[in-house]
Write a structure and sequence with these properties.
201 residues; alpha/beta; Rossmann fold; seven-stranded mixed β-sheet; three-stranded mixed β-sheet; globular
């Protein structure tokens, strides 16, 4: 499989930059990971109208675990719309989100705790017989560095890597940036993400 994009933490697709590229026909193949069952179902529905080789994985990406505990806001009635997109394995990130929601609407969100299956990049790449990866997008609410550094860059060197950095500690962010710089990527900040592109892209 030649993969235009691997998206870790795909949520429901609609509204993000990857889905916009799909709508414009610039992305025609991809592997999309979303661990929360309700969001995973909506993700698949949102892609049904678009032609392409799109594969969906109802799991989280974790370098070592086969299962992990994740917390998310299931009922967002009366809360900011983005409250449905903050499922996280990281307690500090959950607390930050809870404070942001309460500041925005004066209500504390109720988090639901679930166990989700986990896969590694190598398992995904082998399962789908991936021969090439053009882009890697990571949005995992605080797990972004662990996910990024577990990607087998020795096997594939995507022309573009996008990862959310806003929840990372400074040491973790520096580790992520150093890895990408060492691989020859040029970096730029784009709102809450870093975008890394290779000079020969």
């Amino acid at each position: 499989m030649i993969v235009d994009v691997i998206q870790v933490g795909a949520h429901v697709g609609k509204g993000d930059r990857v889905f916009a590229e799909v709508e414009h026909g610039r992305i025609q193949s991809g592997i999309f990971l979303e661990p929360i069952p309700e969001l995973f179902e909506e993700l698949q529905i949102n892609y049904q109208a678009h032609k392409g080789d799109f594969r969906f994985v109802n799991a989280a990406l974790h370098p070592t675990r086969k299962e992990a505990e994740l917390e998310y806001v299931a009922d967002i009635r009366g809360l900011p719309m983005w409250s449905c997109a903050i499922g996280s394995m990281v307690e500090d990130t959950k607390r930050k989100h809870a404070n942001m929601i309460e500041e925005a609407c004066g209500r504390a969100p109720e988090f639901v705790k679930i166990k989700v299956p986990c896969v590694t990049f190598d398992e995904i790449l082998d399962r789908h017989d991936v021969q090439e990866v053009s882009e890697l997008h990571i949005d995992t609410e605080g797990m972004d560095k662990e996910v990024l550094v577990s990607f087998p860059f020795e096997r594939f060197l995507p022309r573009k890597v996008v990862f959310e950095f806003v929840h990372l500690k400074q040491d973790d962010l520096q580790e992520a940036l150093s890895l990408l710089l060492g691989l020859g990527y040029h970096l730029r900040q784009d709102d809450i993400d870093y975008v890394a592109e290779r000079g020969d892209a």
